[in-house]
Design goal:
By secondary structure, the protein is an alpha+beta fold. Helices cover about 15% and strands about 30% of the residues.
Length: about 180
Amino acid sequence: MDDSSADSEYARTLREKRAEKDEFFDTHRQSPIPPENRDDFAGLEYFEPDATYRVEADVTRFEDPEVLTLDTSDGREVRYNRVFEFAFELRGEEHTLAGYRQQPEDAIFIPFRDKTTGQQTYKDGRYLELEPERDVVDGDTVEIDFNLAYSPFCAYSETFACPLPPEENWLDVVVPAGEQKPSL
């Protein structure tokens, strides 16, 4: 399969997953969209899939993770372990993002802000989650796919409290990938 076939297959798969998410948001009882707003829900807005925003990141894993307190959208705080740092190149520049877990078996949580935050994307940032098939160790390389970036549930309803990206995860670059600002 050549690169263009792989890219089009990836884009098709991504669009299918996005349609499934729209269906969940529109009909499921656990949707973050308040029931009174679902009649007007026409689906989430996304940036077009773009392979530019699928990056290979070098992993630093901290054996003695620092415990951080992250602010949340409702003014409370939540504790996470800063387990990873991911170093990658995007748009010709080097960047890093920290990855967090509350429990060792949790997915790797990467809350972030970029230059689209508050303009084209949700005002408090977006999230990525990595669920590797095996344990990620120091020196590994993992893919970070910003096409999978999503808005937290608090973007749709104030009944949810969401961790806010800490300043160390504020990227000084435009990342037009993943979910756009909710239009509710």
